[in-house]
UniProtKB/TrEMBL annotation:
Its cofactor is [4Fe-4S] cluster; pyridoxal 5'-phosphate. Belongs to the radical SAM superfamily. KamA family. Keywords: 4Fe-4S, Iron, Iron-sulfur, Isomerase, Metal-binding, Pyridoxal phosphate, S-adenosyl-L-methionine. The lineage of its organism: Bacteria, Pseudomonadati, Planctomycetota, Planctomycetia, Pirellulales. Residues 131-343 form the Radical SAM core domain. This is L-lysine 2,3-aminomutase. One of its GO terms (molecular function) is isomerase activity. It holds the Pfam family Fer4_12. PANTHER family: L-LYSINE 2,3-AMINOMUTASE, LYSINE 2,3-AMINOMUTASE-RELATED.
Amino acid sequence: MSQPPLSGQPAKILTTFSGLVPPGSASESRLFDADRVDWNVDWQTALRRAIRSTNQLRQLLGLPLESDSRDSNEFGTFVPLEFLRRIQKGDARDPLLRQVLVTSDEQLQHSGFVSDPVGDGDALATPGLIHKYDGRVLLIASGACAVHCRYCFRREFPYGEFGGQRQKWEAAIQYVRSHPDVHEVILSGGDPLTLVDENLFELLDRIDAIGHVRRIRIHSRFPIVIPQRITPAFCDHLSSLRSRVWFVIHANHASELDATCLSRIGLLVEAGIPVLNQSVLLRGVNANEQSLVDLMTRLVDHRIQPYYLHQLDRVRGTKHFEVPIQHGLELMRRIRARLPGYAVPTYVTEQPGQPSKTPLDRI
C-alpha cells in the first residue's frame, strides 16, 4: 500500500554542539564528583550537559592540561557525564578514556589512512542510503552521535551534503520500496537514537510498512553511553513492528558495561529483541587476551551475543589505534581456547567493493 510522505517538519535531532557546558565554567574548576551530579535526567539533558572540551575532560579527571587546543576540528571532544563516570580519575591509560580523548596522534598523516576507508561514498544509492551488500541497505538516519569515539570510521563522512533530513528519508524509502530484493534495512549514523521517539518511530513505521522488508536492524552506542535512552515505551514500539528488529550495541571493553547500562539493555532483551554487540580491536583499549575474554563473558552473561570484532577501519587520524592483523589472529586463537563457541565474535575487516565483511581468521 502506498504510504503518505513523511511530514514536512524537520526531524528533531539533538546536535552535538548545542547547550553544552562551556570551557572555563565553574564545573571545570574541580575534579569530577559523581555525588554532585543529578543522574535522574532524561537522555536529552544528558546530551546537553556533555563535555566538549579536551582540557575540561582532562581537568575533571585530574590529568595534565594541554597548552594547544585540539577541539578546533569538526570532530571535537564530546563525552556525556554518564560515560565519564566510568573512567578512572588520574589514569591517562584508562581504556574508556583512550576511546574518547583527543590527542596529537590524530594530526599525524600516514599512508593508507584515508577519509572513507570502507567505500561508503561509492555505495550511495540515494543521499544517505548505502547499498553495498545483497538484500540489505543502510540508512544514515542521523549525523549526530551520543559520543565522539576517536576511532570512528565515519568521522569525515559528509553528513551535511545530503540536504534536509526528511527529504533524505523520503528518497531512501522510495528506493527500498522499489527494490523488492531488499529484505533488511539497517539504521545507523551517526546514531539513529539521537532522533526523538516521535520521529524515530515514524521512520520505523514507514520502513515497516514496506511488505518485502522482513528485518530492521538498529546500530547504536546509546545503550552504552547514555543508557536512559532505552525506555519501556521505546522497547514496546520496537516489539510492535511487523518486521523483526535486531539491535546492535557497540562496546569495546567490559568496564563500559556497568549495572545501569546492563539493566537498560535488559529491557530490550526482555522485550524479545535480539541484542548483538560489535567491537573494534583497539591498541591501548582491548588488544589483549584478558580484556577480550572479560568483555565477551560479560556480554553473554547478560544475554548479549558477541557479533563482530572489527579490525580498525583505516580512517585518517587513527593509526595509533591499529593492531597488526597477526596479533589479532593470535588473540582470537587464545580467546577461542577459553570461551564457549557462542561467546567468540567473528574477527572481520571491511574492504571496499567486497560483497560482505571479510572474516580474517578464515583466510
